[in-house]
Amino acid sequence: MKVLLATKNLGKVKELQDLLSGEDIEVISLEDIEDWEEVEETGVTFAENAAMKARIAAERTGLISLADDSGLEVDALDGAPGVYSARYAGESKDDDKNNDKLLNELEGVPEAQRTGRFRCALVIATPAGEEFLTEGAVEGRILNERRGKEGFGYDPLFYLPDFGRTMAQLNLCQKNKISHRAQALLNAIPVLKEIAQRHTTRKENF
Question: Which residues make up the binding site for substrate (predicted)?
């Protein structure tokens, strides 16, 4: 069975393919789809954006499709930047500017109140109109200065108490084992396997 991961990030594709190792499921990406038109993210939640992208991908390609949306939620900012994480400081999607704005917004906020989480919503959509939502989250705290050079986005400010490090101080292998996206992908595996089983059963009945 072939499934489409609605992204052009080949690292994400490899991550999903590795998790599906041993299964008769081939993962392709938007790089494999000719003349793909980007889907504008207009949802007010991660789940809405993920569902929109997965649904459109399934409709356009006729393939079982997966899409995710993720970002940072800060409790002291009532969940901001949330779905606007990538463009928090403007449409330029500049990591440094986004981090600077976050630090400014949290100026004077006590350490105990600087809690937050990275959250990911992932939706599986089928051409028949079925949709399945899985999620993942990593709890942490927002520092008042950057630490670490790995990762991207808000990783240098996101401190993981259990590790004593920021996301940007973890290597890629460590991060992929605990990340919000990895959790959402892991939660999606049983759903994909169940869909694949149904797909196989239908073919055998013909």
Answer: 7-12, 70, 152-155, 175, 180-181
